[in-house]
Give the backbone structure.
Amino acid sequence: MKKNEQEGQQTKDTKTAKPAKAPKAPEPAEPTETPERINPLDITKNLPVKSNSSIVQDFRRSDWLYNPVIYTQISGDFTLMQQRVFIGVIEKLQDRIIDSISEQKRTKQWPMLFSKEEMGENIDIRIDARSLGVTPERYPELKQALEQLMGMKFGYVKHRGKTTTYEMGVLFHYIAMDIPDELVRRGGEMVPRTRSTGKIRIKMDKDNVNNFLSMAGGYTMHLARIAQICKKKRTPRIYIFLSFYRDSPQGKSFDYKDFCAFLGIDDDSYVANCIERLSKQLKNEEITKSEFAERRAAIKETDNPFHKYNKVKSLVLEPSKKELDELCQQGQVDFTFTYEAIYENGRKKGNPDKIMFHMEKGRMGLERDRVVKEHNQQQFLMDKLVERYEGLDIYELMPLVRRVPTEKFEDFRDYCLKELPVLFEKTHRDRPANYVLTVIENWILALEKERKEQKKKEQETRMREIQQQAEVRWEECRESILQKVTKDESIRIFRSLRFERFDPKERSLMLQVASRADYDWLEQKAVVEQLLQPAIVKFFGKDSKLLYRIVKA
């Protein structure tokens, strides 16, 4: 039996994915993770207004995606192209997922993504191949990936109250690239268009779609382009799965067999895939029944290229870790991981019982944490103000709150929660919302004026320091020139030069010269090339310019 290549494509004939247990999912209780509501890489775009939670919606950008944990734990050994499709589906459903988060915040219960009315037929989704980062020359590869996914049964986690089970079901009832029926002119004739437009049509199975996309297990957030920037096919799956635990200080351990089953590289998956391929060969009359029975009996779990932990380590964990390490260092992903095998009952060799992962954040992850914290503080303050003052709209309040610099936000919050209520009680305004917005804006305007004046003073102080330093350098520069001249007239001219100013932006040094005759002498080619130019380069840099202003006594 031929073994699968370590980073090869998923076997074309494979139509089942391992239904066995994925790594244990979180309990279906209320999520412990505070909704991450803003995009740490792009917070300058216009704010959408569909969601009730302003910052939840603001976090919905093209760079980051909300993803139900159950959907991320679908088990199988998927190609990078197939993973792009999975992510493309989630990207199309972002508005529904965000609305679900808002609804759960209000009712404390997770709603279904699709209503009973919508479940009367299969859910129809359209995706442009370009949004998946797929160019026309790779359409054949995409088409093959879609053909493999259609009708495939996936293993997934299902929550029933406090009980967790692992079941199988079809997610994609239909999935293919559209080929329109329209006619195009070729060679003077109208013929049917046969070239794919890159439009993907997906019908998600009505009986299973809410199970696969259930929010009951919570949700995670990850980079949208992870399957496009990775070259190792298992790196995106490991990254997305671990993203739910990125903030776990103690790390997270998983049953080793369950983890392998999640990636579709366990022994049971290997045997099932081999049998499936033989069954298709039998159906296509490529082999006889006796050959089928003989080959099936010859299938061994030990033939699985990932049967031993040292192979899983060298072919899966280490390549994925190395790739995430590099992407994290480059600032393309927010975290990477380390891992260790855990053995129980005194064992020290063989396949481990568990694998412990520790997530390590890079500069993108740390910046993301900072911005998440900052914007969650903003959300908390705005919620308090909207709750307290009748008619106050969060979308009118938000632009003002965002004008407050980070280092002044604590003062601003104290003012809004402590001093503003006292002012409001004294005025007894009939239009509380207008009054609150005006008072807050006046506070911000006063702060901005103060900061502007402070910045001006700092710039003036800095410029004085630059001029003082430049004058000292000029004196040193002149002394170095005087050491090279002997004629009294030359010494007189150089000693008569006076420092006026130095422009750091233009890197120009302005000197005062006593007369036109002195200026003409200084501009002589020999003086410039032998004395002035070398000294100016040495003390002010090679791009510096020397200017004069004639000041008659």
Summary: Residues 484-550 form a domain with the GMP Synthetase; Chain A, domain 3 fold (CATH 3.30.300.180). The chain is about 45% helix and 15% strand. The chain has three domains: 54-266+304-368, 369-459, 484-550.
